[in-house]
Specification:
By secondary structure, this protein is of the alpha+beta class. The chain folds into 3 domains: 60-197 and 382-418 and 433-448 and 477-556, no CATH class; 209-297, 2-Layer Sandwich (Alpha-Beta Plaits); 299-374, Alpha-Beta Plaits (2-Layer Sandwich), CATH 3.30.70. Helices cover 58% and strands 11% of the residues. It is elongated, with a radius of gyration of 30 Å.
């Protein structure tokens, strides 16, 4: 088979097929891109295994793309993560401990009722919970005990259980909506609570400049009334601080406004300001006219970090009549949160002002207010590369617990680095350079689905070995019981006992099951990043518990 010798071609054909199949819906329900990618990859790998073709894609490929996925998720959810942790930290901790504890109890009961070949017990436990560190812990235990001959059973049980659990758990994330819950609505409600009455995207986030329409406009008027004639623009700016003259058309020539310029009769003025004020401008100036060349004024939105003495300690009303004249203040942020503002609001050091106006006016803010941060379509690869390196380094730090060495793993390390960096960027939006939402979303989508495709394509021979060895039955039963009963019970506890937000609950259950693909499926189902808020805490706790118990089960077999 030609594709068997072209792993890169095959890999991205699977990803493309997964996205195409994920768009197919029957009565409004579909698998989604993640589950579809895994199903296609598993089907191809099984067929190739039966035909004797071995597909082997280097594991480093899946590691790199999975790391990109986890870092991208962290860069999105940082500010929300803090708010969610303040609200439901105790519940997150409960799920992070309850789900693995229930899985361990069911695994022990299954071991007492059924005869399991050596290696299957920890393999099913780790695989059904998609806890990859558990596989490594069990393998190190067998090597230490001189039982290397059972590692084949361990790997086979883990591979089959992992893939089956991954597919079914992704589908399970859609069950609440199928049962009548409305998880997208729940996600929107939580987002509104987190944002509060002020809802502008925070500085440094990917969507910070993706705002809606503003109550300001640009309109042209011919100067026929004498009240403004002969007055310099500096004087008019003090009289009318919230309406700015952007251009002056005089005798067919376009003039840029300057403080010492005086207006003459029949000048045509391009005025920029709140629409409500522009509606009354004709009373003081003259009739509104349509002059296309005056409309050709490019406006942009930028964040300005206040740190100059000429701005810090001054009121917004003062700035509006001075350097801020002609700029619309969209929002003001302090300490990573949006604050209400008015003309008497005082600017403090480190405040972030989001303004919209002409580029030349925004340029004038840099020497008088502080650093200007503009939208960009480029991504700061230095920040991305350093973030990936730091996250992997943190994940590699080991903590000895007896004979077992524990590490949080690169995935959790990268998630934490992304969260911390995104939180810092809400306070210092220039930190780390531009990181547009489109680029972050690409890393998240492509990273997870390439990881899933590699996982499925490499699993075929392990599944075939399980079938031939007669271990398919115990592995299948164990996966369905150990992998899903605790998660289902946890969901009912969260929904009916804790009365948790449905979208947040999905993320907590996915984290308790160490299932990143499930978390992504929850995001697809809810059309929101809310599930990622509850995922990190439950994931970290569950991962530690399952890793330790996989090691213990391997030692006592």
């Amino acid at each position: 088979m030609w594709l068997g010798h072209q792993p890169i071609v095959l890999l991205f054909l699977v990803v493309a097929g997964g996205y195409a199949l994920g768009r197919v819906k029957i009565k409004g329900i579909g698998l989604g891109a993640t589950a579809s990618t895994l199903v296609i990859a598993l089907a191809i790998s099984l067929v190739d295994a039966i035909l004797g073709v071995k597909i082997e894609i280097p594991e480093i490929t899946s590691t790199i793309f999975f790391d990109l996925f986890m870092f991208a998720v962290g860069m999105k959810v940082g500010p929300q993560f803090l708010s969610g942790l303040k609200r439901d930290a105790a519940k997150f901790i409960f799920f992070g401990l309850f789900i693995p504890a229930a899985s361990i109890g069911l695994m022990q009961a299954m071991h007492a009722l059924m005869h399991l070949e050596p290696g299957l017990l920890p393999g099913i436990l780790a695989g059904s919970n998609t806890a990859t560190p558990g596989l490594g812990a069990a393998q190190s235990a067998y090597v230490a005990e001189g039982k290397s001959d059972v590692i084949g059973n361990l790997s086979t049980a883990f591979a089959f259980s992992y893939c089956l659990s991954m597919v079914l758990f992704v589908i399970m994330m859609k069950l609440p909506d199928m049962l009548g819950r409305d998880t997208p609505r729940a996600a929107r409600e939580l987002e509104e609570k987190i944002r509060g009455p002020l809802s502008s995207p925070l500085p440094g986030t990917g969507d910070e400049f993706l705002g809606g329409p503003l109550p300001v406009g640009l309109r042209s008027f011919r100067l026929e009334r004498t009240e403004a004639v002969g007055h310099p623009l500096a004087e008019l700016r003090q009289t009318y601080p919230f309406v700015a003259i952007e251009r002056v058309l005089r005798a067919g020539k376009l003039l840029m406004p300057a403080d010492d310029m005086t207006l003459e009769p029949n000048d045509t003025l391009a005025l920029y300001g709140p629409i409500a004020r522009l509606l009354n401008a004709s009373k003081a100036i003259g009739p509104e006219v349509d002059v296309p060349e005056l409309r050709d004024i490019q406006r942009e939105t930028a964040d300005v970090v206040a740190h100059k003495p000429s701005a810090v300690g001054h009121k917004l009303g003062e700035l509006a009549a001075g350097v801020g004249h002609g700029l619309y203040l969209n929002a003001m942020f302090r300490g990573g949160a949006q604050i209400p503002v008015g003309p008497d609001s005082t600017v403090e050091h480190g405040d972030v002002l989001r303004v919209t106006g002409s580029r030349w006016r925004i340029n004038g803010l840099e020497p008088t207010i502080g650093r200007v941060v503009r939208p960009s379509i480029s991504t700061d690869l230095v920040t991305l590369a350093l973030g990936l390196a730091l996250g992997a380094a943190i994940g590699a730090i080991t903590i000895p617990i007896g004979a077992l060495k524990m590490a949080i793993g690169g995935a959790v390390g990268l998630l934490l680095v992304g969260i911390v960096l995104s939180i810092l960027r809400t306070r210092y939006p220039a930190l780390g350079g531009p990181f547009p939402e489109e680029a972050r979303q690409l890393l998240e989508d492509l990273g997870l689905n390439v990881f899933i495709a590699v996982l499925g394509l490499n699993a075929g021979h392990g599944v075939e070995n399980a079938i031939r060895a007669g271990a398919l039955g115990p592995i299948l039963i164990g996966t369905l019981i150990v992998g899903f009963v605790p998660g289902i019970i946890a969901w009912f506890i969260g929904a009916f006992a804790f009365k948790m937000n449905d979208a947040l609950l999905l993320g907590a259950v996915a984290g308790g099951r160490c299932n990143s693909a499930g978390m992504r499926a929850a995001q697809e189902t809810t059309h929101s990043t809310v599930p990622a808020i509850s995922y990190p805490v439950t994931f970290a706790l569950s991962n530690v518990v399952l890793t330790i118990m996989s090691y213990v089960f391997a030692m006592i077999e």
